[in-house]
Amino acid sequence: MKPVIMAGGSGSRLWPLSRSLYPKQFLPLAGEKTMFQATLERIDGLCDQAPILICNETHRFIVAEQLREEGVDASILLEPEGRNTAPAIALAAQAALADGEDPLLLVLAADHVIQDTHAFQRAVRAAMPLAEQGKLVTFGIVATGPETGYGYIRRGRPLASTDAGADDGSSDRLQPYLVDRFVEKPDLSTAQEYVDSGEYYWNSGMFLFRAGRYLEALREFRPDIHAACERAMQDTRRDMDFVRVDVEAFVACAEESVDYAVMEPLCSGEDADAVVVMPLDAGWSDVGSWSSLWEVNGKDEQGNVAHGDVMTHDTRDCLIHARHKLVATVGLQDTIIVETKDAVLVAAKDRVQDVKHLVSRLKREGRSEYKVHREVYRPWGKYDSVDSGPRYQVKCITVKPGEKLSIQMHHHRAEHWVVVCGTAKVSCGGEDRLLTENQSVYIPVGVVHSLENPGKIPLELIEVQTGSYLGEDDIVRFDDRYGRT
């Protein structure tokens, strides 16, 4: 079995913590590990093949770094543009078949919380015999309430129960069902009817099937998507840790979810017995909003979820997330407060779905807060924009040991670097020099330069930029070890 982890998405409803260039799946929102790393940990001991990761160009270095931290080897497929789940899984399936085998694919999202890993693994093991028979298995979450933010799956007739292979050696059997139909997100009263009937599950978006079986179904119902993805995989290119597909072929692919492209037409067609739902009761959440994050985290005696330096008085059922400052509350109830270096969100807990409207407005107005944090991560390290004005900007730059920024120049700004900690190898106008703590160098406008950390500890320096234009797009790269243009 080969895991396929889809690591796209922007998580806009978890702003200001989640931003488009550093979204929720790469943040530690429900524990010490990031949600992506928790997904990798969840399949440890379950899958015997290296995972395939699917992400976009923007997040590729974050994925590679978090894989490295976990000590996991994986193939990272880069999508030139997001085309939803059906094409993404098609790329992964063709990549899996290229190794000469036809493995089971366990398709997961990188941004789900599953509190009971043991129950999750039992459900997957119970579904394996069905997938080996050519079934397409989806995992239906046992509903705990009338959620209007999820799609639903109505179960049909039961199949023979399957041995879940419990780790304690006991006979633990789970009951799969044929899928009767998939249902769109309902209104509240309809959702309550679904839950009361006991016949509906939340649609988790997790699947198990053979790679070849999925492609066969995709070819039958969406031959256009199948053909576009096949063309995209015919001309792949290896780039460091990443596999790049043919851009033109993939961008021409239609945008469609796996439910619409394959699962729904299959369960309503002649081969309806091929689609199976395996119930999953494992403390699942897609953490799609701040209220759902409040639900899955541990709470104090007053029902509060507090992270960071938080002080409360007469405060109940709130989520308070302090990243950098003391956040103190008095007399609040059912409120969300999230503090970051450059933004603070205060919202009623029952209105958090509307955070996406704020993000849309930030984007329309061209504000950077929708896209990046004040602290921005790069493949070589990170920088923190400490202060700025009309003609100046101050950054704290951290370069990891052995890493190097691109050889570059700027048309509009000069830079002054002061080393705070570590050793810097600086190339400026063809001259190389080593700088240590409290030493500095000036980079004039238009001079080709580069910065490298040749040492064993992180290099920290203060950069002061001055000039008429200080945007990040005023960078002309001549050479870059990370393949950026």
CATH topology of the largest domain: Spore Coat Polysaccharide Biosynthesis Protein SpsA, Chain A
Helicity level, as a percent range? 10-25%
Q: For the report, how would you describe the main beta sheet? A: 6 strands, antiparallel
Could you give the distance between the termini?
Answer: 37 Å
Strand order, sheet with most strands:
22-23-24-31-26-29
Rough shape?
globular
| Discrete helix count | 11
Overview of the structural elements:
The protein has a six-stranded antiparallel beta sheet, with no helix packed on it. Strands 6-11-7-10-14 form a five-stranded mixed barrel, surrounded by four helices. Mean pLDDT is 92; it is low at 166-171. The chain folds into three domains: 2-285, Spore Coat Polysaccharide Biosynthesis Protein SpsA, Chain A (Alpha-Beta Complex), CATH 3.90.550.10; 295-360, no CATH class; 375-479, Sandwich (Jelly Rolls), CATH 2.60.120. By secondary structure, it is of the alpha+beta class. A hairpin with a 2-residue loop joins strand 27 and strand 28. It is globular and about 75 Å long.
Summary keywords:
485 residues, alpha+beta, Spore Coat Polysaccharide Biosynthesis Protein SpsA, Chain A, Jelly Rolls
How are the secondary structure elements laid out?
Layout: E1 2-6, H1 35-42, E2 52-56, H2 60-70, E3 75-79, H3 85-97, E4 104-109, E5 113-114, H4 117-132, E6 136-142, E7 152-158, E8 162-163, E9 173-174, E10 177-183, H5 188-197, E11 200-210, H6 211-221, H7 223-234, E12 237-239, E13 242-244, H8 247-251, H9 258-267, E14 275-280, E15 284-285, H10 290-296, E16 305-307, E17 310-313, E18 319-322, E19 327-330, E20 335-339, E21 344-348, H11 355-364, E22 375-378, E23 381-389, E24 392-399, E25 407-409, E26 413-421, E27 424-428, E28 431-435, E29 440-443, E30 449-452, E31 459-467, E32 476-479
Parallel strand pairs: 1-2, 1-4, 2-3, 3-13, 6-14, 16-18, 17-19, 18-20
Antiparallel strand pairs: 4-11, 5-15, 6-11, 7-10, 7-11, 8-9, 10-14, 12-13, 20-21, 22-23, 23-24, 24-31, 25-32, 26-29, 26-31, 27-28, 27-30
